[in-house]
Design brief:
- By secondary structure, the protein is an alpha/beta fold.
- It has helices spanning 19-29, 59-72, 92-99, 130-145, 164-181, 189-193, 201-209, 229-242; strands at residues 3-4, 33-39, 78-85, 106-109, 151-152, 185-188, 213-217, 245-246.
- α4 (130-145) runs parallel beside α5 (164-181) and α5 crosses α7 (201-209).
């Protein structure tokens, strides 16, 4: 693993460690590329304040610190400035306007909710409701149609407990559409080490049958999670068992 585009900072309110510590650990681990992709601020216009992402007022500081480290360590590692973004229909255009003045290099598409953060469903909760699965997929379609995203993070986060045939129908359509847009999908290390419902073997079997491109993502919220060889081993087993096309680094 020579590149990681998925890592966080304390600004999201659920990560620890300084950005400098992350960079130095990434160098120690042998990364050639290391991307910061903290949870994007969203300029909600209804007074809602998220507890799981940086505030709009923190974006300038996030950009400055990342760019300062990028310059300082340019001879040792290629640092990238990104954001992990959920597609919220009511607010996405406002987000683009907020980000426009800054040299953001990439958006990771990482859908955790249907609709918007404050009026939708968290898709990581177990559900047998096909409508949640259907809306999760359709919202990803809408996001990809914007042309703003580098890859689809933890695509198997949606925790559907209904009939396997229903899951397969929607997820196969999702995989076909993601491939049509040319986006890789991510095997997420946070899901592995934390014992979450993802990686979902059902998803990766379908992804393999659809010959998807796949990338590995640390999803690091702590310095100790930047380099996890035991998670890489599990991820590579998923790649090999399902015949997935591994992408080691991306053109950012």
């Amino acid at each position: 693993m020579i590149a990681n585009y998925h890592s966080h900072t304390t600004r999201c309110h659920h990560a620890t460690g300084t950005q400098r510590e992350y960079v130095e650990k990434a160098i120690e681990a042998g990364y050639e590329v290391f991307g910061f992709s903290d949870h994007t601020p969203y300029p909600y216009n209804n007074g809602f304040v998220s507890s799981i992402r940086m505030l709009p007022s923190e974006l300038e500081d996030y950009v400055k610190e990342t760019l300062d480290l990028k310059a300082e360590y340019k001879n040792e590692i290629d640092i990238k400035l990104g954001l992990e973004v959920e597609y919220f229909p009511k607010h996405f255009e406002d987000l683009l306007r907020l980000c426009e003045p800054y040299p953001i290099e990439y958006f990771l598409l990482a859908q955790h909710h249907t609709e918007n953060e404050y009026d939708g469903t968290y898709v990581g909760f177990p559900t047998q409701d096909e409508r949640v699965l259907e809306r999760y997929c359709s919202q990803i379609y809408e996001a990809m149609a914007t042309g703003k995203f580098l890859y689809l993070a933890h695509p198997d986060l949606v925790n559907f407990k209904g009939e396997d045939a229903v899951y397969e129908r929607h997820i196969r359509a999702l995989c076909k559409k993601v491939k049509e847009y040319g986006l890789p999908v991510e095997i997420n290390f946070l899901g592995i080490w934390d014992g979450r419902n993802y990686p979902d073997r059902r998803f990766w079997k379908i992804a393999g049958e659809e010959q998807m491109d796949v990338i590995l993502g640390a999803d690091a919220h702590h310095v100790s999670k930047i380099w996890l060889p035991e998670c890489e081993k599990v991820a590579m087993q998923i790649v090999e068992e399902n015949g997935l096309n591994l992408v080691e680094r991306l053109d950012v």
